Amino acid sequence: MKVTQHIQQAAGKPLFSFEILPPLKGQNIQSIFDGIDPLMEFNPPFIDVTYHREEYQYKELGNGLLKKQVVKKRPGTVGICAAIQNKYKVDAIPHVLCGGFNREDTENFLIDLDFLGIDNVVALRGDAVKSETYFRPEKDGNQFASELVEQIAGLNRGIYLDDELQNSAVTDFCIGVAGYPEKHIEAPSMESDIQFLKHKINCGTDYIITQMFFDNKRFFDFVDRCRRAGITVPIIPGLKPITSKKQLTQIPHRFSVSLPDELVREVISATSPDAVKQIGIEWCTAQSKELLQNGIPVLHYYSMGKAESIKAIARKVF
Ligand SMILES: Cc1cc2nc3c(=O)[nH]c(=O)nc-3n(C[C@H](O)[C@H](O)[C@H](O)COP(=O)(O)OP(=O)(O)OC[C@H]3O[C@@H](n4cnc5c(N)ncnc54)[C@H](O)[C@@H]3O)c2cc1C
User: Fold this and answer.
1) DSSP labels for 120-152?
2) Which residues pair with 92 in a beta bridge?
């Protein structure tokens, strides 16, 4: 079932959902199930699975030369989605990237998803590969998430790349995209970011899911700006509890988001790893409760495979 249908069907009852990432290559699917099992009591209607593009590694050949290798450290997004749908009977949502795919690869990827009975996708541009500064699309690939949305929405109307295909089947994907309450790192201004977000919606997006934020005011302001710009689709907030002191520097660096002074002060003065986790749980619980008081239909948690804090929050909120 589509995310938008889940929201409609819930008729105002708040929904709990979360995102997981595939395990590092070499680990088995059990690590995924171990991250999902503790959260199933909160009846998630859907679970997102991230996609991780290739990275370049340079291996010394021993003769002073380096060999460039292309590696995917976290493969398995599609297999994990199929396994989730099969085992838990819950909608699994694969993230689909522009990066690393040409449009033909994308089309074939979407056909696989459709055949597996996957009804939802999140369409993303993806970041630059780690060794490069700027994102570069593949030759004949999509450059912006909006182009990817257009391609998926096209397939929903039976438009394939080969325009000689006759009587081709239509897909029926519900399409989510990313939104950034604190602006995407490359966007020159919030206004331009929202205008490009609006363009993504106009290309066929059904809902927005946000980057994590730690101050609800950022989210409420973002929603206001979107609504004033004429964006009417549901906006699902993304939440992440802090679980370690090192995240105080990792999170701003990696996701280009800020942490409120009060939260930072509390985490710095915590005297044990458990105390940090507890602060993260309490902060995120307070955020969650305030969002629900304001009528937000779905709360989406970035579990990153670690269910413990999310479970503690969900117990207090749902
Ligand atoms: C909820 C969520 C889930 C994510 N999941 C993943 C994942 O699974 N795997 C992964 O690798 N990454 C993931 N990311 C990270 C994401 O891929 C990066 O943030 C990426 O840098 C931007 O992706 P986007 O889809 O927002 O890009 P876009 O919407 O294409 O925007 C990228 C930038 O280009 C600008 N822009 C857009 N259109 C135009 C245009 N026509 N002309 C000029 N500028 C334009 C935007 O303002 C923005 O600054 C996720 C992010 C979020 C918020």
Assistant:
1) EEEEE--PPPTT-SS--PPTT--SSHHHHHHHH
2) 47
Pairing relationship of beta strands 235-239 and 207-212 according to DSSP bridges: parallel
- Kind of pairing, strands 46-49 and 174-179? unpaired
Q: Give the whole-angstrom CA distance, residue 300 versus residue 314.
A: 11
Nearest-CA neighbor of 310 among 94, 41, 9?
41
Question: How far is residue 11's CA from residue 2's CA, in Å, rounded to a whole number?
Answer: 15
In the 8-state DSSP scheme, what is residue 53?
-
Question: Which residues is 69 bridged to in the sheet?
Answer: 57
Pairing of strands 55-60, 174-179: unpaired
The pTM (predicted TM-score) of the whole model is 0.97
| Residue 58 pLDDT level (bands cut at 50, 70, 90) | confident
Residues, the chain: 318
Question: In 169-287, where do the E strands start and end?
Answer: 174-179, 207-212, 235-239
Find the mean pLDDT for residues 20-35: 96
236 CA from centroid of ligand 1 (Å): 16
> How sure is the predictor about 21, in pLDDT bands with cuts at 50, 70 and 90?
very high
Cα–ligand 1 centroid distance for 189 (angstroms): 15
Cβ atoms of 151 and 125 within 8 Å: the answer is: no
Report whether pLDDT(305) > 80.
no
Among 74, 125, 142, 201, which is best to mutate for testing ligand 1, by the most ligand atoms less than 8 A from CB?
Answer: 125
Q: Are 53 and 106 in contact (CB under 8 A)?
A: no
Cα 276 to middle of ligand 1, angstroms: 30
Q: pLDDT tens, 241-265? A: 999 999 999 999 999 999 999 999 9
Cβ pair 305, 20 in contact under 8 A? yes
